[in-house]
Amino acid sequence: MVLLIRNQIRNFNRFFPSKLYQNIVERNHVKINDIIGNLKGSDYDLIMFGIVSFIQQTIGIDPINQVKILKSLITVIVIIILRTIILRIIFSKTTDVKKRYFFGKSTIYLGVIIGSLIILRIWFEGFGSLGTFLGLLSAGIAIASRDIIMDFFGWIFVVIKRPFKIGDRIQIGEIRGDVIDMSILQFTLLEIGNWVNAEQNTGRIIYVPNSMVFNNPIANYVAGFKYIWNEIPVLITFESNWKKAKEILLKVAQKHAEHLTEDVKKQIIEASKKYMIFYSKLTPTVYTSVEDSGVLLTIRYLCKPKRRRITEQAIWEDILEEFSKCNDIDFAYPTRRYFNNVLEGKIKNINIENRNSESGGEDNGM
Question: Is this structure's pTM higher than 0.70?
Answer without folding.
Answer: no
